[in-house]
Amino acid sequence: MSHSSIVLIFPAALVVVAAALAKAFMTPRTRIHTSVPAVRTLLNPPDIPISTLLRARSIPNQRLVKALGISSTFVSDDQGVHDNFTREAKVLITAVSAKDGWSRLVDVTEACVNRFLDAGSLDYATFVQSVTLSVVLAGLLGTDIDDLDPADVAFVTKAINDRWAKSKSRTALTAEVLDRINHHIIRWVPDRTNPLNLIIPAYETMWRVAAIAVVYSNRDCLLREAFISYNENPTDDQFRASANEGTRAQPSVEAIVSEVLRLHPPTRHITRAVVVPWWKRPFVPSIDVADIEEAQKSLFFGSDPESFNPMRFHTSHSGPKRDQLYAFGHGRLKCVAASWAPPAAAVITAKILAKLDGVAFRLQEGPHIGKREGWDGWLIERACIM
Question: Is the pTM of this model over 0.85?
């Protein structure tokens, strides 16, 4: 090769390297998906082995290992861990879905609502959190309600929420608080290894769904009527029952919960690591984010998608169905409790609304509806001295 050829090749090689480096530097580290098709594809990609899906999910969730000591499938790419967790969760759900199990869950929920209404603190978020955690403990895991001291339960719920929120930042997390959480959890559920693996997914989802469903239904007499009817008859048929009498058309409890899940999804973002060979990593995003909240505000869900309107799920409409929501994920890693959690959250909502009758208790609203945080000013007030 002549000297002149070498001189020409060398600058050409530099151009290629420079272009590659430029592409690497310009590639965003996070890619956000906001459309329904993009969210569906991200959460259920075709022709991807389950091992890769588990790894993509587990990498972004490693923050929860330190924050809450979780060791479940949400933070592990081990298929054995995934299979064991799924099997254990299905056993619990099946047990409380059977006739006797469901009746017991309803009774437990009412007992938990009554127990925490008698507690000293009637901060609304603390109350709903305490009720929901207690329902998970006593209704799903067999804890004795009498062992659930309101102050201890309130501490655990606040600590879980704080550590979850702080795990998303660089805030230091002390082991002492996690030790205190586990001290109570192990005392309440002594016969299981790391009960938080099962507690966190159920509690984290249901308390916010119930809190927000209570707010909307407390404002609207038709929605309240639907939940009061469900409180009196908490069956699958009643969960789906809706009225169709013209101007008195009434959404079902299922439609109300579905609209809460659509407009206020408890899981607002689902994150996946981009799993590629090492040499591709500089040229692709490292993280894909399914923006569930934004996707569910698209016109796919009907007109005026930013307003709360359970009638978009009414049987008389050709709109979306509950299985087209993504608050519980989608595809092979969809939450195993996706069918059970909505009616269970509805029972909690119904039992709370039955107490907020304006005679014994009423809901004092704060400035805006919260999410995991942001419930300042919301209180349950005693309407009269009992």
Answer: yes
On the 0-12 / 13-18 / 19+ scale of CB atoms within 10 A, 136 is: buried
Measure Cα distances from 61 to 97, 271, 293 in Å.
Answer: 29, 8, 19
Structure tokens given for 41: 């594809």
> How far is 230 from 227, CA to CA, in rounded Å?
5
Amino acid at 193: T
* Region at 47 (left for phi over 0; alpha for psi -120 to 50; beta for the rest): left
Residue 51 is inside which H or E element, if any?
helix 50-58
- From the CB of residue 321, how many other CB atoms can be counted at a distance below 10 Å? 10
In sequence order, what are the residues at sequence separation of 6 or more whose Cβ sits closer than 8 angstroms to the Cβ of residue 282? Answer: 23, 24, 27
Q: Which of 210, 212, 254, 257 is nearest to 351 (CA)?
A: 210
Token representation of residue 352: 């709370």
Token code pair at residue 46: 């075709």
Over the chain (386 residues), the average pLDDT of each successive run of 10 is 53 49 53 94 94 95 94 96 97 94 97 87 92 97 96 96 88 91 97 95 95 97 96 96 73 96 96 78 81 94 93 77 86 95 97 93 94 92 69
Q: How far apart are CA 316 and CA 319, in angstroms?
A: 9
Q: What is the separation, in whole angstroms, between the first and last Cα of the chain?
A: 100
- Between CA 343 and CA 234 the distance in angstroms is 9
Find the Cα–Cα–Cα–Cα dihedral 224, 228, 231, 234, rounded to 10°: -80
Largest interatomic CA distance in the chain: 101
What b/e string do you get for 26-65 counting C-beta neighbours within 10 Å, with b at 16 or more? eeeeebebeebebbbbbbeeeeeeeeebbbbbbbbbebbe
62 contacts 75 by C-beta, under 8 angstroms = yes
Both structure tokens of 295: 């996707």
